[in-house]
């Protein structure tokens, strides 16, 4: 099997409210709006986050983003009025900070991520 793109989905109750929050999270408008109920951000060369209006499934997504500089990422979010959780060191030096979107979807930023441990 060959996978060319990965698309994570965060279901939300109201796409307009969620789109505004995710615009603050990413610091920019969505890269794509293929339909009224969907907003997409390209987060890596072949990875996307889709914010999809689906009230029945809203609030149950877990999305992880590995970032180069976790402290900088958290500070940048604070300048946009978002409040990520405190940075915690977990196993093997990996560091985490979590933020919850308005629907309860959990987004975790990972510092010191490695492909192999």
Can you list the strand order of the major beta sheet?
Answer: 1-4-3-2
Shape: globular
- What is the name of the CATH architecture? Roll
Number of helices: 2
In sequence order, what are the helices and strands, one letter per element? EHEEEEHEEE
The whole-angstrom Rg is 14 Å
Task: Characterize the largest beta sheet: strand count, sense, and whether it forms a barrel.
Answer: 4 strands, mixed
Tell me the span between the first and last alpha carbons: 25 Å
Percentage of β-strand residues? 35-45%
Number of strands: 8
User: Do you know the CATH topology?
Assistant: 2,3-Dihydroxybiphenyl 1,2-Dioxygenase, domain 1
Integer average pLDDT: 97
CATH class: Alpha Beta
The assigned structural class equals alpha/beta
- Uncertain runs: none
Helix amount: 10-25%
**Number of folding domains?**
1
Q: Let me know the CATH homologous superfamily.
A: 2,3-Dihydroxybiphenyl 1,2-Dioxygenase, domain 1
Task: List its salient traits.
single chain, 117 residues, alpha/beta, 2,3-Dihydroxybiphenyl 1,2-Dioxygenase, domain 1, four-stranded mixed beta sheet, 8 strands, 19% helix, globular
Tell me what you see in this structure:
The chain has a single domain (6-111), classed as Roll (2,3-Dihydroxybiphenyl 1,2-Dioxygenase, domain 1), CATH 3.10.180. The strands form 2 sheets. The chain has a 4-stranded mixed β-sheet with strand order 1-4-3-2, with helices on one face. Helices cover 19% and strands 36% of the residues. The mean pLDDT is 97. It has 117 residues and is an alpha/beta fold.
